[in-house]
Amino acid sequence: MDALVAQLQMQYRNYTVSLYQQGFLDDQFTELKKLQDDASPDFVAEVLSLFFEDCVKLIGNMARALDQTGTVDFSQVGASVHQLKGSSSSVGAKRVKGLCITFKEYCEANNYEGCVRCLQQVDIEFKALQTKLQDMFNLEKQIIQAGGKVPQVDIN
Amino acid sequence: MGVDFLVGMANLMHIQLTLEPELKLLYRINAQSWKDINVDVNHKVESRLKLKFLELELKLLHCVKAHSWKNTEILTANVTRAVETIALLLVTMVMMLPTPSSSCSSSVVSLSQNPKSIRFDSFSRSVSNHMMEVCNCIEPQWPADELLMKYQYISDFFIAVAYFSIPLELIYFVKKSAVFPYRWVLVQFGAFIVLCGATHLINLWTFTTHSRTVALVMTTAKVLTAVVSCATALMLVHIIPDLLSVKTRELFLKNKAAELDREMGLIRTQEETGRHVRMLTHEIRSTLDRHTILKTTLVELGRTLALEECALWMPTRTGLELQLSYTLRQQHPVEYTVPIQLPVINQVFGTSRAVKISPNSPVARLRPVSGKYLLGEVVAVRVPLLHLSNFQINDWPELSTKRYALMVLMLPSDSARQWHVHELELVEVVADQVAVALSHAAILEESMRARDLLMEQNVALDIARREAETAIRARNDFLAVMNHEMRTPMHAIIALSSLLQETELTPEQRLMVETVLKSSSLLATLMNDVLDLSRLEDGSLQLELGTFNLHTLFREVLNLIKPIAVVKKLPITLNLAPDLPEFVVGDEKRLMQIILNIVGNAVKFSKQGCISVTALVTKSDNRAPPDFFVVQTGSHFYLRVKVKDLGAGINPQDIPKLFTKFAQTQSLATRSSGGSGLGLAISKRFVNLMEGNIWIESEGVGKGCTAIFDVKLGISNESKQSGIPKVPANPQHVNFAGLKVLVMDENGVSRMVTKGLLVHLGCEVTTVSSTEECLRVVSHEHRVVFMDVCTPGVENYQIALCIHEKFTKRHQRPLLVALTGNTDKSTKEKCMSFGLDGVLLKPVSLDNMRNVLSDLLEHRVLYEAM
């Protein structure tokens, strides 16, 4: 069993590091991890689920705003983007945040194409992140089921 | 002729040595006859011969009778011989006679031709006849030959006695005297004399007929005498020169001894003198008391020299007279002065030697002359009186500056004593010693006096010091009492007035309460000022150093002053030099006090115009008061603050008084304003404590004035962190347990994250998602309100103002922190201007949040000024 645990832990560690290295996550995610303790054991999961819900909602808003024929209310789009940016930065979704910044610029520039493109990218990104994080959480579950402890990953 | 006779005699003696004493007698007779040839010769010879022949005849008869033929023969031979001898003698005598008669000569010739045939008696007769005939030529006979014999007998006896006594005397006296080198000479001499005496003594027996023994003894004595006397005579030839030389040597030695005695006497006198001087010096130097010295001198001198009187004359204060100060015999000398310019005194003072003076001079006449005819000799000597000022470094004091005393010594009257040289020398030496001893005594007196003076001064200083200490202590006690006793009611008044202000009041009541508050605050400030100043003066005030933001400080001050300035319509501008360090080390509170005071004064005394506050880092070439050096050391710098106003201005003459306590230029404009006048004094003290300087420049009354001060501050090593006003070096793990916090964020995720953060730190978090909800929910329980202000288009800052309005009392209002995505300067300033206590950059890390929270809660005071 121990070998399995160790293997799983190794797997988990590598996976987490790869996520950071690939730019999916940044330091804020680490901070978030820090906040998880015995008092709130599922804190990260809760926050992330909330984030993903928010993402869906906001992306929907943005899509609707951009789909409108006629004049596009860029301020509304901008507001949503702002929100997304805030959320993503809060959880440490690096790529999403970066895209949001670009998206915001396009919004301010009233660049329709740019906005649309960004929206698509944001969608892709957030979904990808969701998948990745899901995998990570599964690994964590496996480790716990195997009787081990989820290791603290040091990202330097 | 004599010699021949003697020789003849000697021959005869030789031939007839064995003759009987009769022959000897004959010889003697002959000898005597030769001596007394002119006197008594015939008589003696005749008588003697007669006697002799008679004796011979008798003897012959005896011999015949006795039938002693041999003797008869001998006797006959003897007689024959005697006859022959006599004949010869007669012949010689005749020959020697001046005018021999013929008859004598013929008979003598006949005799000589035929001696043996002569018969005794005929011969004798014929001889005697011839003798008589012969001796007719000589002077005649003696009639009384027995008398003469008697005299001779006596004389011989006495001679003998004398001769015997002399050696006895000699022996006696030689025995008595121990030394006589020539004893044996004496013996010899004695022997000679004894023998002579013996001879004379024996001679006594030969006057009458005597036996052969006597003749023998006589002969022996004579022979011995002769021997001894000759020997003595020979010996004396050698001895007498010796004896004489002994005598001369004795004389020489006596002379020498006398000379040595004289020298001994001299040496002894000198040694005596020396001893006296030593003793005197010892006596004089054994004391440092002036009077004892002088008295002892006189006493000892008197004793040593056996003086009748000894006196000391000292110069008076004026120096014109000599006063009799000490005498030996008289117990209480009369106040007796003598002018100093007397010739005799000048004479004595002119030389350092002892001078003989006349006993009749005024200085020597101490007692009334009581009929003594011959006054003893008097000697006077000068005694130099040396003062401290006389002692030069190089040489002995000058003659002209000397003062002298006069010592007069008198020998006893009616004695033939004279002053000897050694005595005079003694006196001179003593005078010198006395001078030295007196100067020592003077020095000692001086030093004693100086020491007494110093002691007095010390005592006085000690008392003064103690008084000063007591005064300081009293003042401190008073201040401490005042501090405590006066503050307590003050606090009560202020606190209760504040509380009163919170309650429902009518406008008039509110006005009254506000006035009370204002007055009591003023009074409290005044008390604090006074206490501060007294502490400053004591030097017991210490600066409380800490790191603080200089820029912030200035802004705070300005904010405090702004309301009043706005009311008086005086714009205030603040210029901070670009190189002014932000974080400095110093006493923040006191620095603020200084700046406030200066700026406050500027505002107070200006009616119009603008007030400018400039802060810069001063370098050494900036204008500074001449007695103040500005040095820029490594970790320190000098901050210069200039406050310029265009107000009332100050008369340049009054400028020095400005910094004195309680002084205020009394002009109409300033009379209305309050203030104790201590502000500038206190500021000056603080500035001085900060190793700085403060001064005021003014062109004159009505032309405004500029107050400038420099203070030394340390440069903080902490690096600046943008956006975050305060980042402590070491974050403490402060327990924020139960801290009630409100989080306002429209973004749910952010909201959740922030909440999680705070919950993790232990806070009790309430979340709201809108400003309205925030305002609704916020209560005095919430210590901190985190509000997200980065939502565009929505002025979330307004909420800060609303909250400010809601919570008028400072201690109830929660701390407001903005969470924003960007922290540029404009955002920060905006936050500050809206009264937010802090700004945080999203997303916040755990450590960041922790630090900020602890900072906020710790340094609440700082943020209150904003």
Automatic annotation (TrEMBL), chain A:
CDD domains (UniProt xref): HPT
InterPro entries attached to this UniProt entry: AHP1-5/YPD1 (IPR045871), HPT_dom_sf (IPR036641), Sig_transdc_His_kin_Hpt_dom (IPR008207)
Record-listed Phosphohistidine modification sites: 82
Domain of life of the organism encoding this protein: Eukaryota
Residue ranges of the TM segments: none
Localisation per UniProt entry: Cytoplasm, Cytosol; Nucleus
Recorded GO CC terms: cytosol; nucleus
Domain HPt: 40-147
Keyword set, alphabetical order: Acetylation, Cytokinin signaling pathway, Cytoplasm, Nucleus, Phosphoprotein, Two-component regulatory system
One annotated GO biological process: phosphorelay signal transduction system
Primary residence: cytoplasm
Molecular function in Gene Ontology: histidine phosphotransfer kinase activity; protein histidine kinase binding
PROSITE patterns, A to Z: HPT
Biological function: Functions as a two-component phosphorelay mediators between cytokinin sensor histidine kinases and response regulators (B-type ARRs). Plays an important role in propagating cytokinin signal transduction.
Entry comment, domain topic: Histidine-containing phosphotransfer domain (HPt) contains an active histidine that mediates the phosphotransfer.
Protein name: Histidine-containing phosphotransfer protein
Protein source organism: Brassica carinata
UniProtKB/TrEMBL annotation, chain B:
Residues with the 4-aspartylphosphate modification: 788
Sequence ranges assigned to domain Histidine kinase in this UniProt record: 481-717
UniProt KW Transferase keyword: yes
GO CC field: endoplasmic reticulum membrane
Uppermost EC category: transferase
Transmembrane segments: 157-174, 186-207, 214-240
Annotated Response regulatory domain residues: 740-857
Annotated compartments: Endoplasmic reticulum membrane
GO BP terms, alphabetized: negative regulation of ethylene-activated signaling pathway
Single GO molecular function: ATP binding
Protein name per Swiss-Prot or TrEMBL: histidine kinase
Family the UniProt entry places it in: Belongs to the ethylene receptor family.
SUPFAM superfamilies found in the cross-reference section: ATPase domain of HSP90 chaperone/DNA topoisomerase II/histidine kinase, CheY-like, GAF domain-like, Homodimeric domain of signal transducing histidine kinase
Statement: the UniProt record of this protein carries the keyword Disulfide bond: yes
Cofactors named for this entry: Cu cation
Domain of life: Eukaryota
